[in-house]
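Q: Convert this sequence to structure tokens.
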Amino acid sequence: MTEAGFARILIVEDEESIADVVCTALRYQGHVVEHVAGGLQGLELGLTGAFDLILLDVMLPGIDGIEVCKRLREKGDLSPVLFLTAKATQDDRIQGFIAGGDDYLPKPFSIDELVLRVQAILRRTTTAAPSDLLRVADLTFEPAGQEVRRSGAPIDLSPTELRLLEYLMVNAGTVLSKAQILAGVWDYDFDGSENVVELYIGYLRRKIDDGHPPLIHTKRGAGYVLRENER
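A:
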């Protein structure tokens, strides 16, 4: 974030008319915006770690946006990614989330909705986190430093995985429905696409429960609960 509290935003979009409108709208909000038109340029700039948010078109010259996001995550860059794309099927959205994206806005979109989505992502990722250590059994999460450990061993999670884990740990012992998790972690539901929750619960299980007694439990027909012992 800049000293004035505004975000540094990278826009990777090859449709000049869309890029111009988006850049203008976000600059009007006070954000510092940089625009490039190609996937390789976007990847190079994204890897500098200089941005609070990346708006990423899927269909790009060079390499596509999904590949850009994958490579960013592989290199350890955790900048939030909002996909902007005409590919708007449920499968397309899931592919975006699998690649490490945080949100998905199909074209054509309204600028008002875009601004609200940007505000929601920045609020989730830049709001000061509580300093209290969260603990369930041998799993710990230190929100201020975004550090997760199981039996003392560090676990690397994506920004969305961190938000999901924090939500589960804050509500440890409570069965949470998919709708509750969507509202609590993503701020709204993705047109009822509750399988996004299943997808990320699966990611967390592989990282959190691998080789340990399970902490994330499914309550069939009800949702999910994080607790030490299944009952």
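The longest helix spans residues 111-126.
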